[in-house]
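INFO  loader      accepted 1 record
INFO  loader      residues=185
INFO  predictor   begin
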Amino acid sequence: MDTIIPKKMFFTRGVGYHRNKLQSFELALRDAGIEICNIVTISSIFPPKCRIISKKEGLKSLVPGQITFVVLAKESTNEPSRLVSAAVGLAQPVDGTQYGYISEHHAYGLKTRQAKDFAEDLAATMLASTLGIELDIDKAWDERKQLYIADKKRQFTSRSIAQSAHGHKEGLWTTVVACAVMLAD
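INFO  predictor   done
INFO  writer      dumping tokens
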């Protein structure tokens, strides 16, 4: 079997409401634009030289029924007003020839901005760990440069996507998703 290494990736998110939990998930995927795919969830390595593209460009390349690799964060509730969130964060070395790390975060009670920040910090910490670096998030983040500085040789940029929603007031299932969608071509 040939090695599959994604060449492109895009971020997307969505929310769905339905009386059935599974259908609320499908509606969240529909809102994200990826419901036509057979989704295979994967873990967390962002390939070297992978290019991040826009959601619009990524969705154009999807074909109904295709096997699609996705780093997926999702959370659901049927409790009225309960805040749920899902986020995916990416920490990527400034040197694009090195691999990056993608984290997924699922939570209750976090607003979108909080979930995004947590997912980015988590991705940076996990990337540093895989590279054998101790990273203190509070000290490593350079607000002015908008990147994590692990040491003089290793700097990471980060980005994230998140979706938060309050549980439906009538108790319908509410599902949120955040995804990093990998494309091999």
